[in-house]
Amino acid sequence: MLVTGASAGIGVELAECFAKDGYDVIVTARSEGPLKELAGRLARQHNVQAVAIAADIGQPGSGAKLASEIKSRGLNVDVLVNNAGYGMSGGFDDLSAESQLGMIDLNVRALVELTHMFFPDMLKKKRGGVLNVASTAAFQPGPFMTVYYATKAFVLSFSEALSEEARGTGVKVTALCPGPTESKFHDRAGTTKVRASKIAGMMTSKAVAEIGYKAFQSGRRVAISGRMNAVMARMVPFFPRGMTLGLVRSLNTRYSDRA
């Protein structure tokens, strides 16, 4: 099985969940050092085959290169965990086009590309599946994180549709939707400076990963981490859209920025 974005946070913990259950794992991310350390630890602790392949899957065509590398090593991918992704906090006009297009490339294009690489073979074998890491951001638009929220909405929609296509085939598709999680995501995204960062109740990456792993194994289509996160996400359709937009705008606004 393959886990992307496995150098830190939820990706590491998801790899741990699968390895602990006896899965041979392939971990990939840009950072080769942490990957090799993770692969070595998983192999030692869980007596599984663990392979680290450093790759920047945000680059166009990198998914095909990664799949080719995996095949050349005689490895198979029966379960794909699309965890790699990032967000950026700020006004659409303030953030660079490069950073926002890069978000689309990694959060959406790479996820679709890798799924397309491995999903057909899963269907032929009638086993395995795909676990996509979306976000509670997927359930509503996100002013001041406009592109990030939109990419996660895509991931959720894509996952649910693919799950229905796979129904009855023996192949599982799950979308894991974490709420605020303790990870390095917030440092890169700049969300440590927004009002939402002061709201208590961040879950650990380990807790989120365990929820996602159990949901995938049980064949659930969507898993939202945390009871309160689930309640809030499911209530979104019942609120006026303008109210929802205003609330998210307020939560995503930096203290020194526009109100």
What are the defining features of this structure?
single chain, about 260 residues, alpha/beta, Rossmann fold, 7-stranded parallel sheet, two-stranded parallel ribbon, 9 helices, 9 strands, about 50% helix, globular
Write up what this structure looks like.
With 259 residues, the protein is α/β, with parallel strands linked by helices. It has a single domain, classed as NAD(P)-binding Rossmann-like Domain (Rossmann fold, 3-Layer(aba) Sandwich). The chain is 49% helix and 14% strand. The protein has nine helices and nine strands. It has helices at 9-20, 32-46, 62-72, 97-125, 146-166, 185-189, 205-217, 227-235, 241-252; strands at 2-4, 25-29, 50-54, 79-82, 129-133, 172-177, 181-182, 203-204, 222-224. Strands 3-2-1-4-5-6-9 form a seven-stranded parallel sheet, sandwiched between helices. It has a two-stranded parallel sheet with strand order 7-8. Helix 4 links the parallel strand 4 and strand 5 (129-133). Helix 3 packs across helix 4 (97-125) and helix 4 runs parallel beside helix 5. The protein is globular.
Tally of helical segments? 9
Question: Which ranges are low-confidence, i.e. pLDDT below 50, for 5 or more consecutive residues?
Answer: 255-259
The total strand number stands at: 9
Beta fraction: 5-15%
**Overall geometry:** globular
Q: What is the CATH C level class, in words?
A: Alpha Beta
Give the termini separation: 45 Å
- Average pLDDT for all residues: 92
What's the Cα radius of gyration? 18 Å
Major sheet attributes: 7 strands, parallel
Strand order of the largest sheet: 3-2-1-4-5-6-9
Name of the CATH homologous superfamily: NAD(P)-binding Rossmann-like Domain
